[in-house]
Amino acid sequence: MTDADPTPAVRAGGLALIGLLTVLLGLWGAFLIPFRIASVLVPLSWVVALVGNTALGVAAGRLGGKPAIVVAGGLWLALAFVLGGRRPEGDLIVTGSTIGLGFLLLGAVGSALALGLQITRSRD
Fold first, then answer.
1. Helix, strand, coil content of the chain in percent (nearest 5)
2. What pLDDT is recorded for position 90?
3. Lower Cβ count inside 10 Å, N or C end of the chain?
4. Sequence-distant (≥ 6) Cβ neighbours of residue 111 within 8 angstroms
5. Tally of CB atoms within 10 A around 30
6. 70 with 118: CB under 8 angstroms?
7. CA-to-CA distance for 33 and 19, rounded, in angstroms?
8. At what angle do helices 8-31 and 98-123 cross, to 10 degrees?
9. First to last CA, the chain
10. Long-range own/partner contacts, residues 60-64 (CB < 8 A, 24 or more apart)
11. Sign of CA dihedral 15, 16, 18, 19
12. DSSP secondary-structure letter at 95?
């Protein structure tokens, strides 16, 4: 263990914070799916999903390795799928539109990219 390695308490706190940020990122991105400027749909949720999941995955990888990246990505994807299910009241957050499906796809790609970066980094 070097001076730069976090203590177990710091590591656990950091992973808990990453979990919370993952949930918040999923909620924020899901509610950005219908974002419009004037009457034009703007896929801002795609940027949030790709960049956010990649950044959180890289942070999770530094603290907990590959399993932490998989957990963060899985948590985000599970939340996104739950928000994509129609509630008994008829509410639907993540729609089956191009923007909604792109949000799901790019979120998964962001997590996979973070995992690939971790694998490449661990080979060095």
1. 75, 5, 25
2. 85
3. C
4. 53, 54, 57, 69, 70, 72, 73, 76, 77
5. 24
6. no
7. 22
8. 160
9. 18
10. 60/15, 60/18, 60/114, 61/114, 61/115, 61/117, 61/118, 61/121, 63/6, 63/11, 63/14, 63/15, 63/18, 64/11, 64/15
11. positive
12. -
Q: Which residues pair with 36 in a beta bridge?
A: 41
Domain ranges of the chain: 43-124
What is the H or E stretch that residue 112 is in? helix 98-123
Q: Which residue carries 């962001």 as its tokens? A: 110
Q: Rounded to whole angstroms, how far apart are CA atoms 94 and 104?
A: 9
- This prediction has a pTM of 0.88
- Select from 79, 78, 51, 58 the least CA-distant residue to 14: 58
| Cα–Cα distance, 103 to 99 (Å, whole number) | 6
Cα distance between residue 69 and residue 63, in whole Å: 9
Bridge partners, residue 37, by sequence: 40
